[in-house]
UniProtKB/TrEMBL annotation:
Claim: Cytoplasm is one of the keywords in the record: no
Protein name: Embryogenesis-associated protein EMB8-like
Keywords tagged on the record: Membrane, Transmembrane, Transmembrane helix
Keyword flag Transmembrane: yes
Regions crossing the membrane: 20-47, 479-502
Residue stretches making up the Serine aminopeptidase S33 domain: 128-362
Family: Belongs to the AB hydrolase superfamily. AB hydrolase 4 family.
Coiled coil: none
Name of a matching Pfam family: Hydrolase_4
Organism: Salvia divinorum (Maria pastora)
PANTHER family: ABHYDROLASE DOMAIN-CONTAINING PROTEIN, ALPHA_BETA HYDROLASE 1, ISOFORM A
Amino acid sequence: MESRNRVNLTAVESPLEMVLTAASLIPITHHLLGFSLILIAFLYNFLEIHFLQDLFTGFRGQPVVLTIDPCSQLYRDVVSKCKTLHGRHIFMTSDGGTLALDWVKNAQVKGQAFQVDGPAQKDGENPILIIVPGLTSASDSAYVKHLAFIMAKRGWNVVVSNHRGLGGVSITSDCFYNGGWTEDVRNVINHIHCQYPEAPLYVVGTSIGANILIKFLAEDGINAPVVGAAAICSPWDLLICDRFMSRKLIQRLYNKALAVGLKDYAQMHEAVLSRISNWEGIQKSRSVRDFDDSATRVLGNYETVDTYYRRCSSANFVGSVMVPLLCVSALDDPICTREAIPWDECRLNKNVVLATTEHGGHLPFFEGITATSVWWARAVDEFFSILQSSPRKIEISVPSVNPGESSIDQAPYVHLSQDGTVGGVSDETQVEHKEQNKAGDRIHVELNQPPNTDQGMAAIVAPVMKRLNQLSRQNRTSLWVLAYIAFLTTWPLVGSAVSVFFRRRFHARFSSP
């Protein structure tokens, strides 16, 4: 009878049941309040909202990090001075393709939509801005309209070069655009330059359009009839971004959303795509990589998807750009990861200025509590305006890198594991970036670490420190993960040894007379 009571007493005093009993005594309203706070905190981080941070800073914005050559004339003459569609023309390419060029002039900026009733009349020497939209975007995209009307108010003529099959035009050839297809941009720029030979040309590319623009500028070099350019939220390295979009839940959601947009684009041109690509694979695509494997790779004549990503990544070409180029990227971009940003290549090219912000996402960069303005559009406006009004022509620096040579075969190399983790593998020993503040902005300068000549223990420690530095530069949280794994794997052995040590020590002390 006593043993049965003890069993019941033990069951009643179970820690789990005691916790559940205590939780049941808390009012349900308190539980709902706690759950609501947890849900708000989760959504705040999941949706990458930073309203509270902006509120505490008085919506003063955030610092912009510039990665440039400190001796760059472009920085001294232009960037240091920066404080922040009139009709449709159908352009036919040599292969029979059709492109829609949508124009807007300053006299028509009060309109709410692009007009399609005829080509623009020549305005002589007025500067012209050419916009290359992102993936599946066209002249009706909100951010494209925003930039177009801002520049039109400045008195510029603006033209949006819609990709093939977008902007309401049909596919009229077997050639489609992709992240490395520069022929359409080249033909449009040359066409506009011939129509307006006295007008300075400026180009802005967004997202995949930025990747195409950088590749075009590197391929044409000094022969590109462009005065200045801007690349906004370029993916830089398509292979790294592909791995990145398969990691976390938010990236996978973006990946599926982009895949849905690509499938809708393919559905509009089913008559052509079903004939020259893997239409069944397109319909089953659940990610951008799936679509690229079934359509982009096939249409572009690439052996594999990875081959397409490697050959078309703008990080391989930015070192060969020979016109003033402003690059804008957000470090919290949920699509184009910061791991793909070519810091060294941008710093070594005196024609390139890389501006990075802590927040901004992929293209929004909203400003103010009402989010009625976009920061990067204002930055592009100011950059081009000062570049246009510069009293003397900016001296173009000729990069030492061969434009035809891809940096994929040069150090530093990138190792991609099966789970999408990116790690650096380089033959050079480098130290962390040093930051310098100048005119409110920080300039990253990376120095080479001198070779280690010590013998003995130093020769053993140096390779370990080198790998730790490389690992920490790629992802600082990896060090904590390694420490956590080391703790879990060594604790059973260490814990047993400590337990035996203290048991013997205290046993000897308490057993002694």
